[in-house]
Batch of 3 targets.
Target 1
Amino acid sequence: MDIEPIDVTPEEAPPLPKTGFLPIETNWFDRIFISVVIWVALSLFWLRFIEPLGLSIWICTAISVVLAAIIIRKG
């Protein structure tokens, strides 16, 4: 019965966390939550100030989806 030693180096460093443009350490759920909060805030702002000028809420939704994709992907 041959037993070979396993090479384990105690000096292995853990991988560095992914750094994005958000000033806090986040995981994917945090970034989704931040995106939803921004979507709600932007929608309320849009309904109060922009929609009376004649622009549809769908434009706000499109902007929110683009922002969410950027935040979730690179945040």
Target 2
Amino acid sequence: MKPVILLLTLLFTSVPLFISDLTKDKLIVFSSLSNYGTDFDGDKIFDLAVWNPQTNTLYFQLTSDNKFYEKKFFDTRINYQPVFADYDGDKKTDFAFFHPDSGQWIINLSSSPGHQKKEFLGSIGDFPIPTNIDGDTKYEASVWRPSAGAWLVTYKDENTGEQRKFISYGVYQDSSFSADYDGDGKTDLGAWRPDDGFWHIVKSGTGFDFNQSEHIQHGKEWDTIVPNDYDGDGRCDLVLWRKSNQTWYFKYAKDGSQNEIKFGGVNDIPSSGDTDGDGIPELITWDPNDKKWNILNFKKQETLTYKWNVPGGCLPAISILQKIE
């Protein structure tokens, strides 16, 4: 079967369509872009966070003070979707949101408390995926447009300032992502195609030349992609989680070597993040039914579980969710 993208992403889609379907075996996640992280306090440690799309409320715990926070961002039933990343280069994750109907981005810059950066980029059906293709440590607003099989990316030009351009790459059913695959400090554009299990990566260092892109088979239909730098070498590794056997499948960017680890429950949503500050992401899953986090530090061979008292319908604040019909 082919995935039908119904704009059901936690970060990037129209939430009301999936709220009533958030029950066992009805929500299927195709991609979890946790490589942006959620380090709201700048201590280089991943802060656990869930988003309640019904109330536009974020629940999160800062590692710097170990306190639990509840923050409502919009007093409206209009759907705003989190697109958290570091947009000002201060090493803190900014609270940023995308309005899918209008294409408006609202970015609360942590370096300028009380100041919001607002811009319009995208339209109905687009997936907002922040990029940093110029390597200046600041993420920019960008979108993946499945209907056109193309990206609309923002970048900084030394002479003309902020610019935008279309990059044709991918097809409608792709699970797209942006991450630094080759370690040059600039994000590359990638897509995982469920039909054949191929990852397609076009690199910023080649000027996004399709003829110099990489095509790597890894995974199969129904897998969830969870790309991140799992070995700390500065390159994003190609990783999937398989719901059917709760197993993570790794393919490392540096040498193509592979590994697999069984972790998580059948109803979990996978993600990843550095929860101990050693520079290596841990494997993380969120159980939406029991409202609990499961964390595996595979270097220490240590598993931790945290149960949260949050409303039903909360989902990890970093996952792109896609539903199959």
Target 3
Amino acid sequence: MRRTPRGRDGPPAESITGARTSLTQDVRARQRRYIVAMLIRSVCVVVMALTWDRWPVLAVAALVGAVAIPYIAVVVAQAGWRQGRGARPELAAAAPAPATPVVLEPTLILPPEPEPEPEPERSAAG
């Protein structure tokens, strides 16, 4: 049996470089990336406003950037923590299906029909 340098049996300790960042640090980093993206979007809006009459192609490009950057920033911000996760644990096995399926037939329950009232007898003199 091979022993670790400290003389302990078992798996070696996990390296700190392999550990993921804490949730607080990850949220701060995502907030910074989002703010930078929104600053770039603000610059796009200003460039669009300043160049609309002189350089319409540049203004339209800035408009496209101002519209697309928020979507991209949100997608990037939300994807940060998911990428840093380690291997997922195995899910519990699903319950086995019953051997014979139970077939339920539809049933229609009607209220009882009222009995017809007897017609009064008519006199022959009438």
